[in-house]
Structure formats: structure tokens, C-alpha cells
Design a protein that fits this description.
This protein is of the alpha/beta class. Helices cover 43% and strands 21% of the residues. The chain folds into 2 domains: 277 residues, Aminopeptidase (3-Layer(aba) Sandwich), CATH 3.40.630; 111 residues, Alpha-Beta Plaits, CATH 3.30.70. Helix 3 links the parallel strand 3 and strand 4. The termini are far apart. The structure holds zinc ion (2 copies).
Length: 397
């Protein structure tokens, strides 16, 4: 009997499926916010160690990041593959982005690829990265800055949403904190002695609203006043705003950033306040690889008999990796119910048996795409060529 590479992938993932379901439920039922994913990180590290893999903890100075490395039994002189697992939850709604499923799909692809390399005697290395804080500061960006991914030829991760896609072009996203510093005074006895930082925050919010008229249809700006003063009878000496701007392309993000910074500065000028802008994190757009994406979509379509979805919004820190590395960010349909991400309904579906089944199929699909890169030299050449072309065309925006 001839066993195909796809059979090796399916066998490795099916064997682990029951364990992965337990991990997924444990992570889902103990939602932890960005950089506080201690239990999820521990569960995943412990599972990998119980399977005989070595795991490095505290990667890039992040206490909830990890990296596990496997060297093929045929040697390390081949492709270097990396998978990402996420496991942070959202404030208030728990796993409303299904990162419990991202966690286990990363593990599943890692197990399958190590099995393929070992069984089929294909040289190379495989890494699984535990990447925290996707919903907040972007753990992958910190890890990227520390050179954690530097030796990888191909990076891959999966994400649940409504519909599937191998060609997600995510939005760029810059998150900022703006602070205004004024002077407190009694709001009735001597308001003329004060410098109103609360007013500066209000002007900034209104001016950002006015700026929207001149923005491109796919640009987004949204924010909240996080501190507008302490008491109604005191002129506020301090105020703060959290603001996010999004564009389709990295070059456009710079344009919108400069216009936004002028708005925040103008509010300080108008009120006599001083101000400080802290740029908290910037997610760049996800550059898809058409060759990897097409194979991913072909396999998904053979299962679901519906076309891929292309217009999915949102941002990811994986985008920053895609700008440098050959990569695939594969989307899979959560449970066929079309509920949107970041809702309580999504949280509920993310622990369903159907969502697990679909995450497992997506992981098999992702691992099959990687296996094709390992065994088909021509295919890998096409993947590399597509990456170069994509990098050139995105620079034109
Ligand atoms: Zn999310
Ligand atoms: Zn997410």
C-alpha cells in the first residue's frame, strides 16, 4: 500500500484531534487577555513537551511567548517552516475571535509537518511559535524585532471567520495614545486661569470626525476619550484619547498618520495645551501569496463547495511578518453560521464541535500546502516568484 503525504498529514492530525479539542476548550473556558495568557501558554507548552518536543519559553522577553523547534530525522538542510499559534482573548467577550482554534490549528500543522519530514525523510526544520497579544500590542511584532523568525523560509497561520480565504489582504492599523496637558482651576470662580485639556480632547475628536470627509472609502479612523477630566467643577488639567487609524496599504498609512498628527496638534494649539502622542503599535497589511493561497482555496473548495470570500476587513500583526517572509494567513469558516468576529455569538460558536471539525480540516489543508512546498520543487519556485512579485507591486501603492 502506498501512503501519500496527504495521508501522513491527515493521520498525524486525526491522532491528535481529541487532545487538541481538550486544549481548545480549556483555553476557551479560561479567557486571558493580551500578555496575561499564562494558562493557555502553559497548557500548550506542556502538551508539546509531553509529546517529546523541546520548548523555549519567554521568547523575545514576552513571558507568554514560546517557540518549539523540530529538526527532521533527515537533517536540517532543507526548508525552514514556521507556524503561529495565538491564544489571547478579548475584554468582556472572551474568545470572540476564536484564538483557541488558532492555538490548536498551529499545533496541528506543526505535528503534521514534523511527521511528514520524519516519515518521508525530507530534510528541514519546523518551528511552532506561541505568539501572544494579537488583539492588543502585537506580540509577533516584538518577536519580529528580536529576530525570532529570521531563519524561516515560510510562515503560516490560520484564523476562523465567516467564509474561507487564502488571499486575505488585511488592513494596516496604527494605534496611538494622545495626551493633553493643561492647567487646573476652579470652573466657576476662576475658569480664565485654567487651560482646559478636556476641551483639547473634544476638539481633537470633532476634528477627526471632520477629517473623515476627505478619507478614502477603505480608510478607517476610530477612537475614544479615555480621560476627559475628573470633576465637572474643575477645569481638567489632563485628558487622554486612544485612537486607531487604518488603511489598505502601508504607504497610505503614513499619509493618514501625518494628517491625523496635525489634527491632534491643532487641538493643543487651539486650547493652549501641550500634548504628547505615543504610537502604541502598527499592524501592516497582510500580503497574500497567490500560489499558496490558490492551493489552500482549492482544497477548501473541494470540501465546502462554495467560493472563497475576499472582502474580509480587520487587521493582524501577522501582516508585519508577511511583508518580509513568504507566508500564508489562511481563513477558515468558523461554523457555517456567518456570525461576525468579536461578538458573543462568535465566542459561543468557537467552542462548538462543528468549529473544532472545521479547524481540524483547515489545519490539514494548511499542512498539505506546506507539504507540497517540501516535496515539489517547481511549486516552491512558483511560491518564491509570487512573493517577489507581490513585494514589488505592493511597493507601488
Ligand atoms: Zn480579533
Ligand atoms: Zn483574531
Amino acid at each position: 500500500m502506498i501512503i501519500s503525504v496527504d495521508d501522513v498529514v491527515a493521520g498525524a492530525i486525526d491522532e491528535a484531534s481529541a487532545d487538541l479539542r481538550k486544549l481548545s476548550l480549556a483555553i476557551h473556558d479560561n479567557p486571558e487577555l493580551a500578555l496575561k495568557e499564562d494558562k493557555a501558554c502553559h497548557l500548550l507548552v506542556h502538551y508539546l513537551e509531553s509529546r517529546g518536543y523541546t520548548v523555549q519559553r519567554n521568547v523575545a522577553g514576552l513571558s507568554t511567548a514560546f517557540a518549539s523547534t523540530h529538526v527532521s530525522s533527515a537533517g536540517a538542510h532543507g526548508l525552514h517552516i514556521g507556524f503561529c499559534s495565538e491564544y489571547d482573548a478579548l475584554p468582556g467577550i472572551g474568545h470572540g475571535c476564536g484564538h483557541n482554534l488558532i492555538a490548536i490549528s498551529g499545533v496541528a500543522m506543526f505535528l503534521a509537518t514534523t511527521r511528514v519530514m520524519d516519515r518521508c525523510r525530507i530534510p528541514g526544520t519546523v518551528k511552532l511559535y506561541g505568539t501572544p497579544a494579537e488583539e492588543a500590542i502585537g506580540g509577533k511584532i516584538t518577536m519580529l524585532d528580536h529576530g525570532v523568525f529570521d531563519d524561516r523560509d515560510l510562515l503560516m497561520m490560520l484564523h476562523p471567520t465567516a467564509g474561507y480565504s487564502g488571499a486575505w489582504h488585511s488592513q494596516c492599523c496604527l494605534s496611538m495614545r494622545i495626551e493633553y496637558f493643561g492647567k487646573a482651576s476652579h470652573a466657576a470662580m476662576a475658569p480664565w486661569d485654567g487651560i482646559n485639556a478636556g476641551t483639547a480632547a473634544n476638539i481633537a475628536m470633532l476634528s477627526m470626525g471632520a477629517l473623515r470627509e476627505q478619507l478614502k472609502p477603505d480608510w478607517r479612523t476610530h477612537g475614544i476619550i479615555t480621560n476627559g477630566g475628573e470633576a465637572a467643577n474643575v477645569i481638567p488639567e489632563y485628558s487622554s484619547i486612544e485612537y486607531t487609524i487604518r488603511t489598505a496599504w502601508a504607504s497610505e498609512l503614513q499619509v493618514l498618520r501625518e494628517r491625523t498628527l496635525r489634527v491632534f496638534e491643532a487641538a493643543a494649539l487651539a486650547t493652549g495645551c501641550t500634548h504628547k502622542v505615543t504610537e502604541e503599535f502598527a499592524y501592516l497589511d497582510n500580503q497574500d501569496n497567490p500560489v499558496l493561497g490558490r492551493l489552500y482555496e482549492e482544497i477548501m473548495e473541494s470540501e465546502y463547495h462554495s467560493p472563497p470570500e475576499r472582502d474580509v476587513g480587520g487587521s493582524t500583526d501577522f501582516g508585519n511578518l508577511s511583508q518580509r517572509f513568504i507566508s500564508l494567513h489562511g481563513m477558515f469558516d468558523l461554523a457555517g453560521t456567518r456570525v461576525p468576529n468579536h461578538t458573543v455569538e462568535f465566542t459561543k460558536e468557537a467552542r462548538s464541535v462543528e468549529a473544532h471539525r472545521r479547524a481540524i480540516f483547515a489545519a490539514k489543508t494548511g499542512a498539505r500546502v506546506v507539504a507540497r512546498c517540501l516535496v515539489d520543487e517547481d511549486f516552491w519556485k512558483q511560491v518564491k516568484k509570487a512573493h517577489e512579485e507581490r513585494q514589488q507591486s505592493s511597493g507601488a501603492h
